[in-house]
Automatic annotation (TrEMBL):
Biased composition (Polar residues): 215-225
Record-given protein name: YqbQ/XkdQ domain-containing protein
InterPro entries: YqbQ/XkdQ
Organism, scientific name: Agrilactobacillus composti DSM 18527 = JCM 14202
Stretches for region Disordered: 214-246
Basic and acidic residues: compositionally biased ranges: 227-237
Occurrences of domain YqbQ/XkdQ (ranges): 25-229, 238-341
Amino acid sequence: MITKFTVGNRDGSSAWDVSELTNNVKWVTDLNFAAGTLTFDVIKTDELFYPKSGDLVEFEWDGFKVFYGYVFKVGYSQDKKFSITAYDKLRYFKNQDSLVWPVSTVSQRFETVAKMAEVSYKVVNSSDYKLPAEVADGKTYFDMLKTAIDATQKATQQMFYLFANYDTVELRKAPYNQLELIVGDQSLMTGFSFDKSIEDAANIVRIIRKDQEESQSVASTSTDEASAEKTSEDPEKTSFSYTDSKGSNVGQWGKLQTTENAKDKANDAQIKQRADELLVEKNRETYSLRLNAIGDLSLVAGNSVHLQISDLHDVGFVIESAAILKATHNFGPNYNCELEMKVNEPWLENSSSS
């Protein structure tokens, strides 16, 4: 049950208790570089409650501190109801800036942008991996950290993410908490959906080098004409060379080809290595698992759970554990949550299900 729900001035000088006036309370956490969101409706009463942009929202459930954030959107309808959207402090990581990053770790870059966003922060898990110097021009703090997190994960196989732990933004490593909870047929789960796809897969990677005898740029007094000349290419002076990497499942899936342009100074060995690396990345099925479950506050993005789903097992797919990518909590008398899971390749009971 709701044990605290207030909306008030940002400096804390005054606040309205809306715990008895609210419904449709929904809390979302997401690993995909997005702020945590709390949406809710408040019934208007005779009290002078008029939520303002930037108002502080604090929400607790069963004494657990769930959400601390600020009002960003307010709607009002003819049935005398406010519909409010609040974001946690990660919302300020959408701020844009231009920075020159020195050689530094993702932990150091997180600390820098958190200070620039003027939010309270904590490095829960740090990284020693040194990222190369780079220029970030007109990018959001989210985008800057995504670049750093992706590069760190590729180099170290460690996945970092951002999470607003009530009023403090944290840098964590996933899975943050490997819960002992079992979500499945006899425990918490009320429904599921699973699918696999090769829509974005590629089993042939082609690295292309373009050779031109001379520059195709032609001087002109007209900007439009010059642009057209620069983008046009003479077929007689242009040729391509190809380096391919091919998967073993072309016969099963058909030919699914993707291309990438070779780097200017890459030699043949480096081009082949890049093709092989890209094939490993692209030549795979993707899996999606969504769960409906009885509400539990530990089921948030970044944590992982054990799974026991007999219906999946019966058709050949065994997924013993998975991390939570996105969690939507619907508070109320029938408190429940919807979970999007990160599924690695399931173990297959039999090859006919692959």
